[in-house]
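Workshop exercise sheet. Pairs work together: one partner reads the sequence aloud, the other fills in the structure field after running the prediction. Swap roles for the next sheet.
Pair: D.N. / O.F.
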Amino acid sequence: MNAVEASTVVYVPPTEVYAFLEDFTGYAGYSEYIQEIHADGDGGPGTTYDITFAWWKLSYTARSTVTDIEPPERIDWKISKDIDARGHWQITPAPEEAPKDHDHASRVVLEIGFDPSSANANAIDLPPLVGLDWVIGKVKPKIEREATRVVERIVADLEGEQRPVTVDIETRS
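Structure field:
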């Protein structure tokens, strides 16, 4: 399974980070590729989200299901159609990383794991002469950049202002 992990530090307590991340429908404003999100549930296990992505000539609606929560530390999810993908948000206190002018710091990690070979080629209406392998090759680097963008925007909203954010990215194949 391939994986992308993005992590950073935000200068608020874990409970605030968790509450913010739990409102998944608000994520549509963080990504240029997410067109809309529809929720069915209260954010707890079993809640489903239909997430409509659009890129290039492609549009696709993924269904994500919350599989487990551990407030205020973790939200686990999986994609429940067309590809084997899963991930989580992990929030841990990081007081040692708080600058002198802040009382709190939390490390926030977004991990996304996916198996490209599990993608249902019939789920996406591809233009003529375009293969799924080509699309996957183009999408993988976009996932990494998009994870960074999402984390940067979340930090700005949580802290109430933009600042230079270091986002550590790790990829595994």
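Discussion prompt: Residues 20 and 98 are 19 Å apart (CA to CA). What would you look at next?
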